[in-house]
Write a structure and sequence with these properties.
By secondary structure, the chain is of the alpha/beta class. It has helices at residues 3-17, 75-90, 161-169, 189-199; strands at residues 25-26, 37-44, 52-55, 64-69, 101-107, 112-117, 122-125, 135-141, 144-149, 156-159, 177-183, 207-215. It folds into two domains: 3-120, no CATH class; 125-215, Nucleotidyltransferase, domain 5, CATH 3.30.420. It has four helices and twelve strands.
């Protein structure tokens, strides 16, 4: 199944049920084609108690999953549904270890679909902001990003999305550091994808991005 067919599936579902997904936008996708896929949809629906509706009728556990999330949803609305999908796939009796999970995006550079992989991401929903032993990127909005080292208040400064990578590169570390994402539940899915796209440009020897992401 190629991108054009995936796009047709989104349009067909939207028309048949009178629902439209506004996909999050990215400037330029690194992944533009995926074969052997099944789609899931997280609709923004103000008629639902928590404004989100999940449709997963066509998911096949042995395929690559394309998760289409409306960019207007918040992480607090979307992440519990995404965790549910991850658990369904991980607990399936018909697993394909090679099958991956991707978010579907609108690639502005090509005006087509692009994809961001999240196969190995573990989401953690926190009731309070607990301390971390790793270097943290704490995000409330894309204009309010701070970088902190919780174990000792050595690093604590405000930054923004455009300066995030250069600021991380300027952090002097005596030993390799792992960066942990701590994200406000009120962050929109569009802002989350913009942050993830930016972080894919990181290429340092001494910093890695933790697969555990914390929502509070």
């Amino acid at each position: 199944m190629r991108i054009s067919l995936v796009l047709l599936l989104i349009v067909f579902m939207s028309c048949s049920s009178e629902k439209i997904i506004e996909l999050p936008e990215i400037k330029q996708a690194k992944i533009t084609e995926i074969n052997d896929v099944s789609p899931a949809y997280l609709f923004y629906d103000e008629m639902q108690p928590d404004s989100v509706e999940l449709n997963r009728k066509n998911l096949i556990s042995t395929t690559n999953w394309l998760v289409n999330v409306d960019k207007r949803l918040t992480l607090g609305q979307a992440i519990p549904r995404i965790q549910f999908l991850q658990q369904k796939k991980n607990n399936s009796s018909h697993k394909n270890e090679a099958a991956k999970n991707y978010y579907t995006c609108h690639d502005l550079s090509e005006n087509n679909l692009g994809f961001i992989e999240f196969t190995g991401i573990n989401y953690h929903l926190l009731e309070t902001e607990s301390a971390s032993k790793t270097l943290e990127v704490i995000v409330e909005t894309l204009d309010n990003i701070s970088i902190k080292k919780s174990a000792a208040a050595i690093i604590s400064f405000e930054t923004n999305l455009e300066n995030l990578i250069s600021d991380l590169k300027n952090i002097s570390t005596e030993t390799p550091q792992k960066v942990s994402l701590r994200l406000k539940a009120s962050l929109t899915f569009q802002d989350y994808i913009s942050l993830k796209e930016k972080l894919t440009t990181i290429n340092f020897e001494d910093i890695t991005i933790d697969n555990n992401e914390f929502i509070y």
